[in-house]
Design goal:
Elements lengths: L3 H16 L1 E9 L13 E7 L6 H8 L13 E8 L5 E8 L2 H10 L15 E4 L1 H6 L13 E3 L3 E4 L2 E5 L5 H12 L7 E10 L2 E8 L4 E5 L8 E6 L2 H11 L4 E2 L11 E4 L6 H5 L2 E8 L2 E8 L2 E11 L2 E4 L9 H15 L2 E4 L3
Parallel strand pairs: 18-19
Antiparallel strand pairs: 1-2, 1-6, 1-7, 3-4, 4-5, 7-8, 9-10, 9-13, 10-11, 11-12, 14-15, 15-16, 16-17, 17-18
């Protein structure tokens, strides 16, 4: 039963919520979408922004590049608790735990330079009214699915206004939006331009930016205007993805005498499901005796490992990459060594 203090705290929460900005998954609790006491939508916050310093445009720029698919209710468990809000008011929460919360926290970390820096430790939860909280006591320990919790597509909300809705972005559309955001360049940013082949009767150009980023420019079927087609951290990765994505693409042959065509292999199957879903990939690029292993996110490089084929083994020059990629990098290196019928060695410092 709600007390007078509960009702007062609910109004404090409502005031702050209507003045704030959240990236969230709206939620239905046993078919109900809104709190009965203050009318706010039930939700799981991915990130609570500081409206004094953060703008919707900045938030959307990051959010549009992320995999924001709704959590799997069967992979989350319910645990009831209370906590204090930012100004000391009481909150009744349905906490969520389980494999899916790791992905939720990784999404939260993508906004590390935004929001409130008050030592908050991420905890996925749904804030509810006291009566609903009491109702869910019997569901404590059940999966969210068993408790009747349904997660809806992500939204960016400022107060009651839906600023951006991410329900319309399937994976191919999201990939296109990522490319659109990352492949806009000005003439001042261009370092070199070279011919990379032909497609649909027109040339495909490979542009290298002054920052070392590579972009393929060409004309899609039925189009008259050239546009950015794909991008990457290495020219060979761009060409590799061009051949995979565009069947009409015909790569150009190496023109310079003695030049070696790079061999690209994709090893992303060694990544964890969470890393794959968040848009990471692992590639190996072999040019003669030199081998590079690239970890990428979207079109950008996360880390690179250099190696060389030395007689009967592949010599790894250094190991410098985020620890969450250890298993996938080990798999990629081993797979490359097996394909070359070589052993492995790590260079000693």
């Amino acid at each position: 039963m709600s007390t007078a203090q509960d009702k007062k705290d609910a109004q404090t929460y409502k005031k702050l919520a209507t003045e704030g900005m959240d990236l969230m998954w709206p939620v239905k609790l046993k078919g109900k979408a809104n709190r009965p006491d203050i009318g706010l939508v039930y939700h799981v916050t991915i990130m609570l922004f500081d409206v004094k310093n953060d703008t919707p445009e900045e938030a959307h720029k990051i959010a549009s590049k992320l995999d924001l698919h709704a959590p799997n209710a069967k992979e989350l468990k319910v645990d009831l608790s209370t906590m204090k809000g930012r100004t000391g008011y009481n909150l009744y929460n349905i906490n969520l735990s389980g494999p899916e919360t790791k992905r939720m926290e990784e999404l939260y970390k993508e906004f590390s330079k935004m929001g409130f820096h008050n030592g908050y430790k991420f905890q996925a939860h749904i804030t509810v009214d006291k009566d609903t909280w009491d109702e869910f006591k019997s569901d404590n320990g059940k999966t969210a699915s068993e408790a009747g919790i349904e997660f809806l597509p992500a939204q960016l909300r400022q107060g009651d206004e839906i600023v951006e809705d991410y329900s319309g972005l399937n994976k191919s559309e999201k990939d296109a939006e990522i490319r659109k955001n990352e492949m806009r360049i000005t003439p001042e940013e261009i370092d070199t331009v070279e011919e990379a082949g032909t497609m649909n009767g027109g040339p495909v150009k490979l542009i290298r930016t002054k920052g070392g980023f590579w972009i393929a420019l060409g004309r899609k079927k039925g189009k008259v205007v050239e546009e950015a087609l794909t991008a990457g951290s290495h020219s060979a990765i761009v060409k590799y993805n061009m051949e995979k994505e565009f069947p009409d693409y015909q790569p150009s042959l190496m023109k310079s005498e003695g030049a070696v065509e790079a061999i690209v292999n994709k090893h992303s199957h060694y990544l964890s499901d969470d890393l794959k879903k968040s848009g990471h990939d692992v590639y190996s690029i072999q040019a003669g005796a030199n081998v590079e292993f690239h970890i990428t996110h979207g079109n950008s490089q996360v880390a690179k490992v250099n190696a060389v084929i030395d007689n009967d083994h592949i010599l790894i020059r250094e190991l410098d990459f985020p620890k969450e990629f250890a298993k996938s990098m080990a798999g990629a290196v081993l797979e490359k060594a097996i394909s070359c019928k070589k052993g492995l060695k790590l260079k000693k410092n």
